[in-house]
Amino acid sequence: MSPTDQGNRSAPARPDPLPLPVVDNHAHLDIRRDDDLASDGLDLAAHVERLVKDARAVGVDRIVQIGCDIESAELTAELVDVHPALLGGVALHPNEAPLHAERGDLDEAFAVIERLVEHPRIRVVGETGLDYYRTEPEGRGAQQDSFRRHIDLAKRTGKVLQIHDRDAHDDVLRILAEEGAPAKTVMHCFSGDMAMARECVERGYYLSFAGTVTFKSARELRNALSVVPPSQLLVETDTPYLTPTPYRGGVNAPMLVALTVRTMADVLTMSVADLCRTISATSEDVYGPW
């Protein structure tokens, strides 16, 4: 989960359908931005239904819904029971962990996550990791401790680990090496350079790219994408954030994966159909059948 950049706030049009189905590997369907609330006037249930329907219409037929605080984690467990297109992930976001530590209820909060992870359609522990952009140095110890606990939880339960890494590349990789990463580890919204991408590939991690890869300024990120084998690639929106070009700064939606996939295919000099086929198969390998 990341704040959006300012930019084009016009309502996105439904993109051209993809030639084959693909998965949005990371979305927060329950998070409503103020401009989104003002524009659609829908309650949450109708809002989620609309997002799922619009995505399906362009070939984004499966979505991983992520809940990263207690309220959204509990809601995620409800949503995956209602919508067959959704699988779920739950965790305490890196910026949540220091807040719970300050209040003295981190153990209780983590116990809720442990309980929710037992749900058979919750396939992900995440997003967890480190965020040095929003957390001051005094809170980073609690953040790192929480990250280690989530790594252990993913390994104990056999779930996928989805990692949030903002301005903390070295410590994320260090802690994963120290703890031993789960068999299936996904770098959500990958933001590193080519060297980091190569290291993640060598370690066997999956790299998920968001709408940021479409930004004109993101040349280094596209260079990083270019060294990732298609078999270790995933794609995401991080809805409602990180909206791809030409809607950068507006409200994101899973249907806009179609724009990011086309940019990725261009960078990789692959056909869009081949990339969709590969991402779809990889997503099922990582998360299991929907």
Report what the structure shows.
There is one protein chain. This protein is α/β, with parallel strands linked by helices and 290 residues long. The protein has 11 helices and 8 strands. It has helices spanning 34-40, 44-57, 70-82, 97-103, 106-117, 140-157, 169-179, 194-203, 219-226, 257-268, 272-287, and strands at residues 22-27, 60-67, 86-90, 122-131, 160-166, 185-187, 206-209, 233-235. The chain has an 8-stranded parallel β-sheet with strand order 1-2-3-4-5-6-7-8. Helix 3 (70-82) packs parallel to helix 5 and helix 8 (194-203) runs parallel beside helix 9. The longest helix is centred in the middle third of the chain and has 18 residues, at 140-157. Residues 2-7 have low confidence and may be disordered.
Estimated radius of gyration: 17 Å
User: Which sequence of strands runs across the widest sheet?
Assistant: 1-2-3-4-5-6-7-8
- Tell me about the biggest sheet? 8 strands, parallel
Number of helices: 11
Number of strands: 8
Order of helices and strands: EHHEHEHHEHEHEHEHEHH
- Distance N terminus to C terminus? 23 Å
Task: List segments where confidence is low: pLDDT < 50 over at least 5 consecutive residues.
Answer: 2-7
Proportion of beta-strand residues: 15-25%
Q: Looking at the structure, what is the overall shape?
A: globular
Structural class: alpha/beta
Report the helical percentage: 40-55%
- The residue-averaged pLDDT reads 94
Structural topology:
Elements: E1 22-27, H1 34-40, H2 44-57, E2 60-67, H3 70-82, E3 86-90, H4 97-103, H5 106-117, E4 122-131, H6 140-157, E5 160-166, H7 169-179, E6 185-187, H8 194-203, E7 206-209, H9 219-226, E8 233-235, H10 257-268, H11 272-287
Parallel strand pairs: 1-2, 2-3, 3-4, 4-5, 5-6, 6-7, 7-8
